[in-house]
Amino acid sequence: MVWNTERDGTGKAYEDESSFKMPSHDITLYAQWEKVSCKNYKVTFVAGKYGSLEGETEFSNIQHGTKWSDAVEVPVAIPNHGYKFVGWKPELPSEDVEITEDAIYTAIFEKVSKGHTVIFKADKNGWLEGKTEFKNIQHGTSWDEAVDVPKPKAKKGYMFDYWKPSFPDKVKKDGIYTAIFVKCHTIKFEAGKNGWLEGETVFRNIRHETPWSDAVKVPKPKANKGYVFVGWSPVLPSENDKVIKDATYK
């Protein structure tokens, strides 16, 4: 309560129980009253579909301006089997918010996704090293977080080429990914007596039917003193010929 030298509150104000120096004349103080709402409110909690509430669900006769934390104790939302609690609608106020009206808050439940499964396989020309099946991956999980891709290992005479289908950025469905292996070849170059080779002499993992010019870079023959280079045995393929087998050229 506040006191004032004027009945309408336009004079000098004094806090209740405060002290002041008495003037040389009489003084009259008028009590200043503030209107307080006597209205009471009710807060109700209800469960939406697929769940229930544990605890008191209705709080009545809450005085105007009472803090949320002093007025209610939020019940526990219990989801049915296969569902999860995701929140209240509307969102609950913070603890210090004052209650100024009736309100109803509904617990919202959603079905729990069992998640997706990702499986890795190898075709007949290789195998996989590492875990090949990942289950219960939540929808939308990034690929790198969801799986650890196994390492493709090729049988002799083959090489890993690609995954079919290609990997997604996020897991949004079940998927089976197959490691595809292709036949590959090795081309070697050797120097005969009386000379040597300058440059790379072994080319491995050449994909079957790769054009010769894309597969190798023929090393440069260098002859010993008193000798000349006369050719390769067998004769080298032409640039557009395709590599279809292992070969050694001298």
Descriptive labels:
single chain; 250 residues; mainly beta; Immunoglobulin-like; 4 domains; six-stranded mixed β-sheet; four-stranded mixed β-sheet; 3 helices; 5% helix; elongated
Low-confidence stretches: none
Just give the CATH class of the largest domain: Mainly Beta
Percentage of residues in DSSP E strands: over 45%
What global shape is seen?
A: elongated
Tally of DSSP β-strands = 23
State the distance separating the first and last CA atoms.
111 Å
The CATH architecture category of the largest domain equals Sandwich
Short synopsis of the structure:
The protein has three helices and 23 strands. It is mainly beta. Strands 10, 12, 15, 17, 19 and 23 form a six-stranded mixed β-sheet that branches. It has a four-stranded mixed β-sheet with strand order 6-4-9-8, with no helix packed on it. It has a three-stranded antiparallel β-sheet with strand order 2-1-3, with no helix packed on it.
Write the layout of secondary structure elements.
Layout: E1 2-4, E2 13-15, E3 30-32, E4 40-47, E5 51-54, E6 58-63, H1 68-71, E7 76-79, E8 83-89, E9 103-111, E10 116-122, E11 126-129, E12 133-137, E13 141-142, H2 143-146, E14 151-154, E15 158-164, E16 170-171, E17 175-189, E18 195-198, E19 202-207, E20 210-211, H3 212-215, E21 220-223, E22 242-243, E23 247-249
Parallel strand pairs: 4-9, 10-17, 17-23
Antiparallel strand pairs: 1-2, 1-3, 4-6, 5-7, 8-9, 10-12, 11-14, 13-16, 15-17, 17-19, 18-21, 20-22
